[in-house]
Design a protein that fits this description.
- By secondary structure, the protein is α/β, with parallel strands linked by helices.
- It is 38% helix and 18% strand.
- The strands form 3 sheets. Strands 1, 2, 3, 4, 5, 15, 16 and 17 form an 8-stranded mixed β-sheet that branches. The chain has a 6-stranded parallel β-sheet with strand order 10-9-11-12-13-14, covered by helices on one side.
- Strand 2 and strand 3 form a beta hairpin.
- It is globular and about 65 Å long.
- The structure holds zinc ion (ZN).
- Zinc ion (ZN) binds next to loops.
Amino acid sequence: MRQLTLIVGLVVLTSLACVDRSPSSEPSPRGAQPDRLFTGARVIVGDGRVIESGAFVVRGDQIIAVGPADQVTAAPDAAVIELAGHTVMPALVNTHAHLGWEKYTDWGSEHFTRENLIDHLHRHAYYGVGTIISTGSDIEDIALEVQQAQRTGEVAGARYLVSPGLGTPGGGPNPRFTDDTGWWGLHAVTSPAEARDILRAEAERGIRILKIWVDARDERRGAQVKLRPDIYAAILDEAQVRDIRVIAHATTLADQKQLLAVGARRFIHMPYDVEVDDEYLALLEARNAYIVPTLGMVTRRASFRRPVFEDPFFQEQVPDEVVTMLRDAATETAAAAQPQSAATEERARVIRENFVRLRDHIILGTDAGAVGDFFGYADHLELELFVRLGMTPSDAIVAATDRAARAFGLHDVGSLEAGKRADFVVLNANPLDDIMQTRQIAAVYLRGAEVDRDGLRAQWTR
Ligand SMILES: [Zn+2]
């Protein structure tokens, strides 16, 4: 009986919350494409709610109504798309990747071109990613031009959000980037005043997201010192005034605590060095902070990871030669592999423990494009890892959609609700039963337009 009451309560709540009150049954605006009614699918809203037999109306690039199928009405001239037997979920929001460098048979700064960036946006779109934040390794002029071209509709694919990087001289991304002879560097800062100047200039260029590195790795390779607390305090302060969202790369508990104390709310990486404590958890709560654990990156060498190149879902986006290349490289690595050290095992244990305690703060980010994780595919791998480490499939989807969007104030994406962008994925199976089913993609729609997945696959695999 208790179960039944709960279900009835949920249905009432869902109806109240989800059905759009705007008059969707009025005719579509004249001269525009007719509205589209997608009906009969299970609708995963993105914030944890599910409508078992749902419907939604898309007008142009927006969702204008969502609710139970028997309560959503569309304009008389609306096109009806029957989706019975399918599940629809919001397009993913990936908050950490590095676009532009990957060329699939090669990798490096020379590939950072407008054309390659656009290709990477299409690759994300193909796999159901609607928004992608590229963190700290982009050539800003090229990146901003592509971002602008996308706003005007000239460029499609996942929405591109550029996030330039700040760090100490010699600091910044991993050595694969900084050792590249063509690496263009980062915004180097040595004082609070300098940091504030950079933020003012970036805000004027329209930048809304910035990355900072607070990492001992930087000291080891010749940066003067790890980014100082007085400098990052100035960055966080100036960012608030300039409406810029800062995401901090920091991998130790001590650094994350200090950053939280001066206002940081977003982290790339969770503390990997020690188990998190109550003080840290209280700071995360108080700040309403978000963590991008990039598990795919940290578990790359872990034994439970299947070789991606054997997965047909991966093979859809690369020619056979790339699969062969990856297989050969893996054979070489396996031949040279050392038995897992005690330190590695201990680190894996800390990651597992920390992940469970941090799970309400976790959001999606893949680090794809940096060290061999592939765009779009890596997002599904990350969802799988979230569940392996203790999330329910529903939690994992929230972390990858609504929560990820909220972390960056992206109020127009992340959930299937009236007024949001029509960014969604149609699945042939229910990922709430098994998170691997996010890979059963029937179609992807971004801004209301269906992504030409067959065309992209043909282009990439030939
Ligand atoms: Zn990264």
